[in-house]
Amino acid sequence: MSFALPPDTAAWLHQEARAGFEVAYFEALNNGWRAQGWTTAVEEGETWVVRYDIRLDEAWTTRRAEVWGRSVSGERSTVVEADGAGHWLVDGQAAPHLDGCLDVDLESSAMTNAFPVHRMALPVGAKAEAPAAYVRAVGLDVERLEQSYERLANEDTRQRYDYAAPVFNFACHLVYDESGLVLDYPGIATRAQ
């Protein structure tokens, strides 16, 4: 299974869990991909802004993510780096709690759910665990997030997955476009562009 090339830009309207908007830009590099984006939101009465610059290798495995955030508590930044084999550094320090993770997942972003789908290229009916280095929107703390994806049968050119993140007692049905970017993330965001 392969995806079409990502568009130059995409955007998502965040809803239900928070009110906000995300815009991302994609760039092909000699050795992979670059995704840059911005999310602004109001969540539980608190405003925040997150900016990211993420580098992926040819297989869409996260290699580096620089994340900047601003909330009423101040400005923050963090850098997470991976060797592509499941070992991570957070701000230059070893992060053994992230061992085995191959993706970064930003709490602020609907776009980052594209990474494991591209990387795993699951056939219809297959299910896989995809733990991620999870960067929180406020404070930019980096945690381990256990999650899974199960590929469902296509009903058209869109791909569908059952997604679960047990720590949040959250499960939903994700719909992706032909380039592997999420179109519908129930309770979180819908594609606006």
Automatic annotation (TrEMBL):
Taxonomy, superkingdom: Bacteria
Matches recorded under Pfam families: Glycolipid_bind
Name this protein carries in UniProt: Glycolipid-binding domain-containing protein
